[in-house]
């Protein structure tokens, strides 16, 4: 039986007093018992009055139980304990797809460019990531792994050339999103509105005299994440874009991948890895593949550190250069807040 079953009603004769009846109602989700006792006066007339009031009391006591049963059938989550606080809740309630190179995070990358999407060509670049996902409101849920949560995401990804003294800003990608997470233990679904815009760096535009395309788009999409074995999870999803600029931009995007988590060591470290495959209509369905492997430090804490080596090939994740191919080898360091 579920711990959230409707209340039960018990009737027991009251010893020592004729006609005395006790009603006890257990409300299981609050672990409490409400007891109603009626003791009629002595004598035959008292016993008759007691039987009448006894029936009235029984009827009155059953009525709330029937209403509670109906409420639980219609609103089963109402009987469950809710995470507290529901507004700006604590804990890690917003899972992420870490192999996606445009997932908001705090960290940075040292990038070795083998095939460059920009006019700098091959060389060395750096990318700073400043972003976070904040849970805002728990719609429903009784534990961190059984919730429906709405949040906000924000992030900026700034790419710099390390081959110039001025460390020219090449481009910056800005992301704002509103995700809704439906989580059931190690599985979750994310429904998300996302806005992304990309801006060419002033130094890059002046150095090469190139015009800005002012890449931007809004999108509505969904991602399904499912753990298929201990330490192994698969995910996949897609989105459709609107308010697309440049105007000739296409709308459909699909991505999927795998995440791997090793057994946590006694010192709190854990081997991790993943692969993300991304295709979109705007890049003529050419796939972008991002592979990563590394170590998570302090994996037993909410605030952990990830040190990752990555290999990316395919259309660039930089919005201003999304139709150009790139091959990158990177070393990244990320902090989970």
First-residue to last-residue Cα separation: 39 Å
Rg, rounded, reads: 30 Å
Largest sheet: 12 strands, antiparallel, barrel
Mean pLDDT: 82
Q: Strands across the major sheet, in which order?
A: 4-5-6-7-8-9-10-11-12-13-14-15
SS field, number of helical segments: 2
Count of individual beta strands: 15
> What is the overall shape?
globular
- The topology string of helices and strands comes to EEEHEEEEEHEEEEEEE
Coarse structural class: mainly beta
Low-confidence stretches: 1-39, 74-79
* Estimated helix fraction: 10-25%
Q: Classify the beta-strand content into a percent band.
A: over 45%
What do these coordinates show?
This protein has helices at 44-74, 202-208; strands at 8-13, 21-27, 32-38, 106-115, 123-143, 146-161, 169-184, 187-200, 216-229, 232-245, 252-261, 270-280, 288-297, 305-315, 325-335. Strand 5 (123-143) and strand 6 (146-161) form a beta hairpin. The protein is 11% helix and 53% strand. It has a 12-stranded antiparallel beta barrel. By secondary structure, it is mainly β. Mean pLDDT is 82; it is low at 1-39 and 74-79. The chain is built from 2 helices and 15 strands. The radius of gyration is 30 Å and the shape is globular.
What topology does this entry show?
Elements: E1 8-13, E2 21-27, E3 32-38, H1 44-74, E4 106-115, E5 123-143, E6 146-161, E7 169-184, E8 187-200, H2 202-208, E9 216-229, E10 232-245, E11 252-261, E12 270-280, E13 288-297, E14 305-315, E15 325-335
Antiparallel strand pairs: 1-2, 2-3, 4-5, 4-15, 5-6, 6-7, 7-8, 8-9, 9-10, 10-11, 11-12, 12-13, 13-14, 14-15
């Amino acid at each position: 039986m579920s711990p959230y079953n409707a209340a039960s009603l018990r009737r027991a004769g009251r010893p020592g007093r004729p006609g005395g009846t006790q009603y006890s109602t257990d409300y299981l989700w609050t672990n409490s018992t409400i007891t109603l006792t009626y003791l009629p006066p002595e004598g035959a007339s008292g016993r008759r009055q007691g039987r009448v009031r006894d029936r009235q009391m029984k009827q009155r006591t059953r009525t709330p139980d029937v209403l509670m049963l109906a409420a639980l059938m219609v609103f089963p989550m109402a009987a469950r304990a809710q995470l507290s606080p529901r507004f700006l809740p604590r804990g890690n309630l917003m899972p992420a797809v870490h192999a996606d190179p445009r997932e908001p995070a705090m960290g940075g990358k040292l990038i070795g460019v083998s095939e460059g999407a920009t006019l700098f060509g091959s060389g060395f670049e750096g990318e700073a990531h400043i972003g976070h996902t904040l849970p805002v409101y728990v719609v429903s849920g009784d534990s961190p792994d059984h919730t429906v949560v709405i949040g906000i995401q924000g992030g900026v990804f700034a790419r710099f050339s390390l081959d110039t003294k001025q460390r020219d800003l090449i481009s910056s990608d800005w992301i704002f999103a509103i995700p809704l997470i439906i989580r059931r233990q190690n599985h979750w679904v994310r429904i998300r509105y996302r806005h992304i815009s990309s801006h060419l760096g002033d130094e890059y535009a002046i150095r090469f005299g190139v015009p800005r395309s002012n890449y931007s788009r809004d999108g509505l999409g969904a991602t399904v994440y499912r753990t298929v074995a201990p330490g192994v999870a698969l995910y996949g999803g897609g989105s459709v874009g609107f308010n697309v600029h440049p105007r000739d931009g296409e709308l459909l995007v699909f991505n999927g991948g795998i995440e791997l988590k090793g057994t946590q060591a006694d010192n709190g470290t854990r081997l991790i890895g993943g692969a993300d495959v991304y295709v979109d209509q705007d890049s003529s369905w050419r796939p972008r593949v991002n592979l990563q492997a590394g170590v998570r430090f302090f994996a037993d804490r909410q605030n952990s550190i990830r040190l990752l080596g990555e290999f990316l090939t395919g259309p660039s994740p930089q919005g201003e250069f999304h139709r150009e191919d790139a091959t990158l080898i990177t070393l990244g360091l990320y902090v989970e807040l």
